[in-house]
Every structure is written in C-alpha cells, then in structure tokens.
Design goal:
100 residues, three-stranded antiparallel β-sheet, Chemokine interleukin-8-like domain-containing protein, chemokine activity, secreted, Chemokine_IL8-like_dom, signal
Length: 100
Amino acid sequence: MMKTLCFTLGLLLLTACCCNAMPEALKFNTAPGNCCFNFFTHKIPVKRVSNITKTHSSCQNPAFIVHTIKGIPICYRETFQWARDIYSQQYYTVGSGQQL
C-alpha cells in the first residue's frame, strides 16, 4: 500500500514539474520567422524604404525583405541587384546618422 502511494505521489509530482516546464520550452522557437515565397521584380523609390533585412538562413529561398514606410514587407530575391545595393547602403550607413 505504501509503495503504491509513494509511486502515485512521485508520478503526480513528476507530471506537475513537466507541465510547468512546457510553457518555458515553447518560448524557444527555433523555426525561422519570415521566409519569402513570392518575389517582387520591380524597384520601388528609395524614399519609400524604411528598413531592409535578410531572411533567416534556414529559409528555402535566400531573400531580402524590404519594409516600406507604410509597414508593408516586400520580398526580393537575394540576387536582385537593387535590393543588394539598398542592403549594403543601409549596412554601411548604420551609425553614421544618415538615412537611406
């Protein structure tokens, strides 16, 4: 009788510990956040660009995500020269106080 009670309490304690730890484990999502599957093929005016980022390295299609001043994300292939130039311009002007 005592063995069964100890086993049951131990199992209950283990279950409670695992259930409490689950939400913490879900905070560490390793999946990529933004990947591109459709690509824009035309330049937009540079004055409409607020930011540009690269997609996560685990995305199937390497790309740049251009964020407009209206908050619209536009995907460009990593090989699209205009996007490469904008990305380089942003990278090299960071900290200089210049805008895109």
